[in-house]
Specification:
six-stranded antiparallel β-sheet
């Protein structure tokens, strides 16, 4: 280190220390660079191209539509387990959610905005089952640039987003199964995607033991989502018509 006249060591000033911390060492990889709290946006056309190539890569290694959905869900899960910490850092809110409803609202709001630039269209609770919720998106970004061939008619590429949701919930301490289902839009003229979230029994038991009753609102009718893909492989029977309410 350099020295001043008189033999004393040069002491960096506060602003110089901050600049030194902000600058990564020469030759540092991207994982060693500091995270940015600013808005991070990617061109939709670039995302569509990369995601299409990823689907083509996975399709070449899959035998059925169910296999492809499973691969998409697993890839999304790997993203989701990292997204929660990143969003918490950028939002400046390191508080951990302790209730499943708060965890779902975090997914619908900050997480969805970080990934897709907007919050999800709706969050509903299945009245018939205390452990099931619906996150509804009218037109998922991952389905906008994908043309499904007739041989894969039951394919729903939103399984990738379902994996992200599961990864976020599991990393936050709320293990759950999440599946994507295509349903006709009640507004008419098109379809929507329903992400069915089914929490593990230990999540419900934990909240019941803590004495946290859930507030219910007046239910509204909801059409039954279609069961296919990875969820249909796990459940042999068709999904009955469900009644759900806004939460």
């Amino acid at each position: 280190p350099g020295r001043h006249r008189g033999g004393r060591a040069a002491v960096p000033q506060r602003h110089e220390l901050a600049a030194m911390r902000a600058q990564p060492p020469k030759g540092a990889s991207i994982v060693d660079r500091p995270l940015s709290k600013g808005r991070q946006e990617v061109s939709q056309s670039a995302f569509g191209y990369i995601f299409s190539e990823f689907i083509q890569y996975s399709l070449a290694r899959s035998d059925t539509a169910n296999d492809l959905e499973t691969k998409l869900e697993e890839a999304g899960y790997a993203v989701g387990v990292r997204v929660l910490e990143l969003v918490s850092f950028r939002e400046g809110k390191p508080r951990r959610e302790t209730r499943r409803l708060g965890a779902l609202q975090n997914v619908r709001g900050p997480v969805w905005k970080s990934l897709f630039g907007k919050q999800a269209d709706a969050l509903e609770k299945v009245v018939d089952n205390d452990d099931e919720y619906h996150i509804i998106e009218q037109d998922p970004l991952v389905n906008q640039y994908v043309s499904v061939p007739p041989a894969l008619a039951n394919l729903n590429c939103a399984a990738y987003v379902a994996g992200i949701i599961r990864g976020v919930l599991c990393s936050g301490g709320f293990p759950a199964q999440v599946s994507a289902h295509t349903d006709s839009s009640p507004e008419g003229g098109g379809t929507r995607t329903i992400f069915l979230v089914k929490f593990a029994p230990e999540v419900i038991a934990r909240e019941q033991a803590a004495g946290w009753p859930e507030r219910r609102r007046r239910p509204a009718a909801l059409a039954a989502p279609l069961c296919h893909g990875a969820w249909a492989a796990r459940r042999s029977s068709g999904r009955p018509t469900a009644t759900a309410g806004q939460v």
